[in-house]
What we know:
Blueprint: H1 21-31, E1 40-43, H2 46-57, E2 65-68, E3 75-80, E4 86-91, E5 113-116, H3 121-133, E6 137-142, H4 147-153, E7 159-163, H5 164-171, H6 176-187, E8 190-194, E9 200-204, E10 207-211, H7 224-237, H8 242-257, H9 269-279
Parallel strand pairs: 1-2, 5-6, 6-7, 7-8
Antiparallel strand pairs: 3-4, 8-9, 9-10
Helix pairs in contact: 1-7, 4-5, 5-6, 7-8, 8-9
Amino acid sequence: MLSTGDEKIMAKDGTIIGAGMAVAAAATTVSLGGSVKLWGRIGDDTPGDFFLKDLLSIGVDTSSIRRVPGARTPMSSVLVDDTGQRLVVSYFDTSLGADTSWLPMNELDDVDCILVDVRWPEGASSIMNEAKKRGLLRVFDGDVANPSVLKELAPLSTHAIFSKLGFRLFSGSDNLEENLLGCTQSLGVLCGVTLGHEGFVWVENGKINKISPPQINAIDTLAAGDVFHGAFALGLCEGMPIKRAGQFACSAAAIKCTRFGGRKGIPNRQEVDALVAATYRT
């Protein structure tokens, strides 16, 4: 278990990877057969060099990532305990700024779907507004953030998929199903919530729907939500109904949780399709 006191702990294993919410989602989509371009900002530093090289090695297009002179690339230290739960300590350099004028909006001409998260609200808002004008699918990863950020970005999406805690912050209440119905009606977009080992719940045609995930023994839950979002977005692009896209995403996240290393545990398409077939009969 993760310690809450002053203690030195010797790790059993470790890895260094280019990661993050959007990064893990992008890597998932590529691993499952999609084509992805990542937009974002990093520092003009040594960690940034490693980050780009690592992502290029797995097929993520990083050509539109902006390197900010004098800024430091965001970093996180992650501790994972024997049950798969994790403690994440992150650092984001404010020198990266909030400027969105450099975003290559013309590249949306060749895009079917965008996926944004809460880490850079200004960028997410600009991208989704432009994508909305073009009628593109827009998936929002509503994770933990200031409620004002969640309330600004969710209405701009076509699919607002929250984490359980993110939705609690967004709705201001613990009554999940009642608030999910209400938020779907008020926002006018499809709303859903990922529930970890309890699965995925969403509203469709005015009704609550739920998927239970495959049963697994978790050893590392890091990036599971990001893997879900990357797989879910790809499923939508491929024309999957919400139920099937949810089953596909739950299966991808479940497999990842059986493997140590966060993003390094992302499965391939054959593995996910096999688990979907074995777990969901309809």
